[in-house]
Amino acid sequence: MLKLSKLATAAALAVAGTGLCVSALAGEVEVLHYWTSGGEAKSVAELKKIMQAKGHVWKDFAVAGGGGDNAATVLKSRVVSGNPPAAAQIKGPAIQEWASEGVLANLDSVAQAEKWDSLLPKVVADVMKYKGHYVAAPVNVHRVNWMWANAAVLKKAGVAGMPKTWDEFFVAAEKVKKIGLIPVAHGGQNWQDFTTFESVVLGVGGPKFYSDALVKLDAKALTSDTMKKSLETFRKVKTYTDAAAPGRDWNLATAMVMQEKAAFQFMGDWAKGEFLAAGKVPGKDFLCAAAPGTANAFTFNVDSFAMFKLKDPAAQKAQGDLAAAIMGTEFQEVFNLNKGSIPVRLNMNMAKFDDCAKLSSKDFVDTAKTGGLVPSVAHGMAITPAAEGAIKDAVSQFWNDDTISVAEAQKRIAVAAKTK
Ligand code: GAL
Fold first, then answer.
1. Separation of CA 192 and ligand 1 centre (Å)
2. Pocket of ligand 1 contains residue 142 by CB under 6 Å
3. Is 35 in the pocket of ligand 1 (CB under 6 A)?
4. Which of 39, 102, 305, 380 lies in disulfide reach of 274, CB 3.0 to 4.6 Å?
5. pTM, whole model, 2 decimals?
6. CATH of region 22-142+301-359, choose from 3.40.50.1000, 3.40.5.10, 3.40.50.11690, 3.40.190.10
7. CATH architecture of the region 146-300+378-416
8. pLDDT tens for each residue of 382-410
9. Per-residue pLDDT tens for 126-152?
């Protein structure tokens, strides 16, 4: 749980010290987000434009830090000090936790007027609701189990196409190493480690195993031979990263692929937003494929904005307009074209989207039918924030410390999974 009361004193002191004026202007909408990289900033600028066109004042509350850990900390202190933003980028089970604190606004009137129930996949709508009432608006669907590559680097290394299995991947990685380039661009936050880890688990064990081990946190699955093999494979991937990875942001790792310093990156399709923002062309400059062994599966990551209770009627109006805009066709298209994701709103025209997005869209629908559609743990879709944090730490310790054996890591992950 968020344990808001414990944070209250510290946060109140922090805000008192700043002397900030906390009253909202009429029609002002303050939006807390962590979209600060090139592609992300371009995407969120589109939402700002739409809101400004409706006559509202956009108050940008950007907190840098991929994956949103920093943003979550800042949000907690703002809410406990009684000064929440109108909207904050919160997703997955964390929405339920915030709603249970009684601080989120009811969006039912907007949702009914805009027919959200019929425009959203049920699995998404359920996450946006607390006790049957909408409290958040979904933005997009990111696919996490992607592998990105620089086409020129693969060519130089003599790698014929995107590897389809982990065995093929390691053959390709060796070839890249031989020409003196970095096979895997990686960064240094625990969510980046886990983004790679969950793709490895999915590729090695398949979607059912992934669900048992990482979503249901089944002790048998976590201590199984399949998990052992996943950890061994994960450790092998590490050997193809560079020594400077610790502390590196995800978008700088993407830049290494763009600049022909590295061949591959395991990252969700916000990486595509970076490639596109830098003018790179999909299928020509950079390639996308499902991570090895995961073509039949889709780890989803749905970004959303939870809305906080506000007192000022003008601010409430702006907030309602924001919620409606987020689910509108204009925003769903232009935002997702920039962000690398696909629209979350059903039946959108995909004509303007590239082949990576079209594949994502097709696989989203197909895997929903076959059972291959699974929530991303790394991106807050699957388990409680507390359990997620503990498992991420255990996995990152293993990734960063070669003295931790596979058996020891398996034990630590199983213990972390019990965190409440
Ligand atoms: C994800 C988020 C994406 C992207 C990424 C890097 O968790 O869902 O929208 O921004 O982090 O910050």
1. 10
2. yes
3. yes
4. 39
5. 0.93
6. 3.40.190.10
7. 3-Layer(aba) Sandwich (3.40)
8. 999 999 999 999 999 999 999 999 999 99
9. 999 999 999 999 999 999 999 999 999
